[in-house]
Structures are given as C-alpha cells and as structure tokens.
Write a structure and sequence with these properties.
The protein is an all-beta fold. The chain has no helices and 13 strands. The strands form three sheets. The chain has a five-stranded antiparallel sheet with strand order 1-2-3-4-5, with no helix packed on it. Strands 6-7-8-9 form a four-stranded antiparallel sheet, with no helix packed on it.
C-alpha cells in the first residue's frame, strides 16, 4: 500500500516502491495521481514508466498492469502525464537498440509510438482532457522545438522554436 503524500509542485519526491529502490513522479495532478518512473540501481535500463493513481498503481514493466500483454515491457521509459480519467497516458521511451527516443500514447493497454517525421527525439510531456498534448522534438542535436498537437482538427501548431547549444529538456509549462 502506498501512502499518499501532499506536496507542492516544485518539491522533489523519491518514492519507495516495493521491489524497486525508488521512483520519481514527474507530474502530480490535483486529485493526487502521480505519473513518472520507477528505478532500480542501474538507472536507465531499469527505468520504467509508472503511475500511482486513484485507479491503482501500474507500470510498463512486464506484469506491471498497464499493458494488455503482461509479457511486454518498455525499459527506459517515463510517463509525462494522463487525461483526468486515466484512460490515456503519454510519455517517452528509448529504443535500447537504436538509442532513438520515441514519444508514446498509452490507451487500452497498448503503447502507440509517436514520432515527429525527421526527428531524432520525441518526448510527449503531458495531455489534456481534449486529447491535445505537449511534446518536445529534436531534429538536430542542438535544436529543440516545442509543439502542441490538436487532435480535434488534426493540425499541428508550432508554439516555439528553441535553438540552444545545451540540452534544454525541462518540463513544459502546465497550461494544457
């Protein structure tokens, strides 16, 4: 049984998860649901998306309850957020064979990979009740582009383009 903690959004939290030395929620919702990842000691290969919600605790580990096929898993993954009903979760994972970072949408126990064409990295950070999501995409090592995908009319709106010499992979504002 996990104890629910009351935290301010800017506070850092390490959660103790049975069978894992720790976890990090990246998104804490008003209802107390948390979306992020759990970790073992090798950090990346044992990093798996995890959710601690009023509907129950799940992860993208084999047998973690989030996937329709309990034999599948997605190492090196992290949930970015979810719709308020918990039916759609978004995040990213890294293909361990190619090192390509993919965004994903998780619905009905199935992970659907989402990549911006031509990107070398796609991260989906959050999603709103209208199924519109915020993503960070890289098309070159020194460039980031923030995009918002609007599902309602299938158009993409460019919000900002960030060209930096250093990685700026920080979480986006929570305005969605």
């Amino acid at each position: 049984m996990h104890q629910r903690l009351s935290l301010q959004p800017w506070q850092i939290l390490n959660r103790i998860v049975p069978g894992h030395p720790g976890a990090i929620p990246g998104r804490i919702t008003p209802d107390g649901s948390m979306y992020g990842c759990l970790h073992d000691f090798d950090v990346m290969a044992s990093m798996f998306s995890a959710a601690w919600t009023r509907f129950g605790d799940t992860s993208l580990t084999a047998g973690g309850g989030a996937l329709a096929d309990p034999s599948k898993s997605y190492p090196n993954s992290m949930h970015g957020g979810a719709t308020p009903d918990g039916n759609t979760m978004v995040g990213f994972y890294v293909d361990m064979m190619t090192s390509h970072q993919h965004g994903y949408i998780l619905q009905n126990g199935v992970v659907q990979t989402y990549d911006v064409p031509g990107s070398i990295q796609t991260v989906i950070w959050d999603i709103n009740p209208g199924l519109e999501w915020w993503e960070l995409t890289r098309t070159a090592p020194e460039s980031n582009t923030g995009l918002c995908n609007f599902r309602t009319d299938q158009r993409r709106s460019r919000l900002m383009h960030l060209a930096h010499r250093h990685s700026t992979q920080s979480a986006p504002p929570r305005w969605l």
